[in-house]
Give the backbone structure.
Amino acid sequence: MTQTHRDTWSAWHECASHWKIFLAVGTLALLAAIIVSAGIPEQYSAQVKVSDERKETDILIGLNAFSAWARGAVNQRKGLRMPEVYAKTVTTREFAKMLSKVKVEGYGTDYYHYILEHHKQPWWNRVARWWSAEKSEQEQVIDIINDNIRSESSSIYNTTILQVTDQDPLVAAMMVDSVCMLLEDRLVRYQHSRATLDYFHAQMKTSEAEAHFKKLQKAYIDFTDSHSDISSPAVQTAADQLQKEYDAAFDNYNKECEQLRRAQALVHKQPATFAILKNTTVPVKRSQPATIGYVLSFLFVALTLTTWVILGRRKLQELRTPQATNNATNNVVWI
């Protein structure tokens, strides 16, 4: 047996000799976990999974499948149409304020007053208010609503999971549907405003291309009218150069007209926001409190701290009595 091995076994025996302390601490930790778990109101989480529909929109407007894929691959002006942005948008306080105005069926009030009248909080939250700075009633309600909303995005699968937690499973399902509707409305308004700006920009570029085309057209006509004899090499070269510039301007004008027609179609088209991959269902099983999780966490923390206190006290005693420790080391039997 080595010295290290003897120390390890001595630590184990030191802890085993205080089994009553571990039993008492474990019992108190178990009771504390049960009290904490019992103090948390039951909550239910409703989810919905959505996916972006950018490719379908571009194909319907006239782009082929490859062009639509390339448009998304280069991340060209996606704006709000990204799973990560979906997730961040629904978890803002501004979005929580919008959700607070939604009517809650069955309660005859909006979500804001539903939280005020029917939402239960753990007892320690009420105690914490005495020691923390007072918030206004509106701030407290918005904080609760904001905490109830969760989201998770996947850039690999281009999907977003939206979740709302509430103490009433029916309300949780209604609110996650409301989150989808509010998000869709915000996306529609954003896409319409962006499409309108793109249309005005396309109009400006088309007007510039038309003016440039007509300018070169007039220059070419004036040149041919003023030079009746085009057999001269210099005159022929100048005419060919003007012809090339005129053709290039005409092609660019046609291209801008095509972009203008596409921008106009996007303005008048009902924009596609996202597809619902997994519909909302009323949750049956509660999501909180997780009693087993609280019990394991409390036991782990309590027993770990107790172990460190017992071993630390033993080490402190050895440091205070160095002579006794040296004698004990000299009496070790090596095998």
